[in-house]
Amino acid sequence: MNNTPEFYMQYALKLAEQAFSIGEVPVGAVIVRRSTGEIVGEGYNQREIRRHALSHAELLAIDSACRYLGGWRLPDCAMYVTLEPCLMCAGAILQARIEEVWFGAYDVKNGAVSSLIQAFALPNQYRTIAQGGILQEDCSALLSSFFRELRIKKQTSPKK
């Protein structure tokens, strides 16, 4: 099995494409057991379809992994996500004790890992290691395409 960061990010990108196909912001996340390379959780954005603020890709992946592994702690796990996590998701990652986070695109407006704030560097927290820029061009292109299509739809839709 190919267990490079790029391999898992490709998987996360496929999940992000699922989100895109249902009109959600295209973010996908996958959680992998580091020692075996086994995928133990996955998710993609579903806030609009579920009408729920907590339905971020990362939180759905954490929920999936916790159910699969049978506990709230996710030691020996890494998350691969197509967009830098927001503050809510960064907090959940810390609480789940995920050891590594690999993300694709940086989020200068809401990123809580390195862009806007550095949640993983706060004192007295569990230590999660993060690395951004994995397949960044692919992740950014998918997001740009989604928002471009959204702007076009808004411009061409009849005014209420």
Short description:
With 160 residues, the protein is α/β, with parallel strands linked by helices. It has helices spanning 5-21, 47-50, 57-69, 87-95, 136-156, and strands at residues 28-33, 39-44, 77-83, 100-105, 129-131.
Q: What would the average pLDDT be, to the nearest integer?
A: 95
Q: What low-confidence regions span 5 or more consecutive residues with pLDDT below 50? A: none
Radius of gyration: 15 Å
**Helicity range of the residues?**
40-55%
Overall number of strands: 5
Biggest pleated sheet: 5 strands, mixed
Note the run of SSEs as H and E.
HEEHHEHEEH
Question: Distance between the terminal alpha carbons, to the nearest Å?
Answer: 53 Å
Given the C-alpha coordinates, what overall shape results? globular
Number of helices: 5
Spatial sequence of strands, sheet with the most strands: 2-1-3-4-5
Percent of sequence in beta strands: 15-25%
Helix/strand/pairing category? alpha/beta
Explain this structure.
This protein has 160 residues and is α/β, with parallel strands linked by helices. Helices cover 40% and strands 18% of the residues. The chain contains 5 helices and 5 strands; from the N terminus they run αββααβαββα. The protein has helices at residues 5-21, 47-50, 57-69, 87-95, 136-156, and strands at residues 28-33, 39-44, 77-83, 100-105, 129-131. The protein has a 5-stranded mixed β-sheet. It is globular and about 50 Å long. It starts with a helix and ends with a helix.
